[in-house]
Structure prediction request, 642 residues.
Amino acid sequence: MMLKNGFSLVSGLLLLVSVTGCASMVEMKTIEQFAQAMEKEDIRKLKHHTTMKFSKVAFRDKSSLDDLKVLNIPTGEATIVEIKDVSENHKKVVVEVGKNKKKLLYELKKVTKTGEWVVDDIYINQKSKNLNVMKSVTEQMDLLVTIREFVDAWEDGNRDDILASTDGEFKETLEQLHPAFLAKLSQRIAGESSSTKRKRPDAQMDKDIAIIRISRRSGQMIITMKLNEGKWKATDVAVESREDGNHVKSAKKEAKMLLAVSNFLDAYNQDDKVALKKFSADKFYQGSLNFGDLKVAPLPESQMAAGDYELKVEDKLANFITQKDGKMVNLSLLKIESDEMDIPDQYLVEEVTLFQDQGNQQVTLTSLFSSRAITLLFNEALTKRDVKILGFSSTPDLNRRVWEKVNPNLVAQLPVDEIAQPGFEILDIDFNGSVTKVHARQGNLPLTYILRDHLGQLLVDDIELDLQGRPSSVKATLELQVQVQNYAYDMHENNIRNLQRHSTRDFNELVWRQVDRVPQIGFSIPELLMSPLTTMELNENQGYARIKLGNDQQGATVMIKRQHDEYVIDDIMIHSDKVASRYVSTKKELRLAMAADTGLLRNNQAVQATYTISNKTPSEERSTISIPEVEPAGFEIPQEEP
Prediction:
């Protein structure tokens, strides 16, 4: 492969040496022999007329001559202007070349065995930041050949050669990288050569650090190299592309990102949660992967992901985009910077997004796993009647309307039998923005959990099910059932204050504001109110509801109205086969009891009974009272909200 940018090409190193003054014929001959060998491109003779050090660096393979030409060593008539004997086996010879009298410094050394003088190094006078500096040809050749070897290795994609061309943290990361990822990264870095003609790379050297720019067809490759134990090795490489989105700010950082992705996918597909914790952001792991069933959302294997991916990097964040069964998968990466100098930065996966329905629906693993987990947790809490866990896993609205109102003494009797049967199974999950619907089966009963996002956490807001004679909303149903059960408990405990709070104005005026305790009547109202739910008719637009409990022989129909944005009880119609009408108004029965026993009343004030009290037995008396029968037809069917 050919280098493209760099130290300018030189057509050759032909020095036409003319010696003036007292110049030694030995120095002239040595330099001429070297120049002639260069002109003929005879590597064998070049090695013969140079030291072992020079040969190993400058002529270590067949392409070395091409690399040497890149240095553009000045040519033309040369004059030896100074000879300095460093020792009897070491000379420094300064020559001026060409019309501009470009100065070169030759270091010559004598071979002990033969006594022959050979070239050990050449220094070229160059300007750098307004300073004249002498640069060593062997150092430049070593760097130049190393650059070519680096580019060749990355263009060929040979793993061993790539690793041999790198050092430090860069090499350590590449060594751990999955071969498929390294192959893809090398293609991304190498790009295409700009031409077959070798050009001089633009190199900036400072002692043991070098930054080299090499032209590529799509832009520039920028290599950072460090001299370590006499060898140049790449510590990072970047690509400035002419095409948007193809820039690589740091191959070392991208390699770290790819390693994070590879490690994460390997641990995920092996269901190794100990390893997953190491490669995931803590919030992502604790809030999703730790309790998630990984088999529910399969992710691609590392090797498959490496074959087709796109890596988008922006500051401390990155997105790794690949495919799984034709569907897009996005792994979001977060850079974790270390405060310790000797601890390198690392990249962790902070979220995985699955794209479904041709990319129209996005599902994060956090949403997927947390929706399943919160649904299962909620269902288990329902079965155990664990109000604390139900509150933890519910939205503020469901808490306010239901769980916060549950009387601690009635927890065991929470009316949730139908939605807490054995055999709960999640069938499917629909994600739509902040609302998630979990379709499930409770035994043979299909139902849907409605989850809503609250402060970044999915919580149960409602359960929808289709039961004849009931609202589809379990939240609305439980809100009223809990209200009725609490009312039953308050009547049993003679809690007049709570009864007043949860009764209509009419009920309070007629009964509760006039008594200190619940009047005794011939029916056990609390027991009837704890009967199983039969039907519930709710008209939220009109603000009233009718709840039928038990059956026609023994039960009750609770009449509820909305008053000041709260549902309160207006009356309780008792079902009994012991009365002719089969329905008895609790409100009226209480009024009769109050009239019969003035000791119930506050301040012993008299109460005018609505009905005549005779000397007949209570059962006979009730049978003679004219109580209007409440037929189902008399209740308005709830209207659907527009």
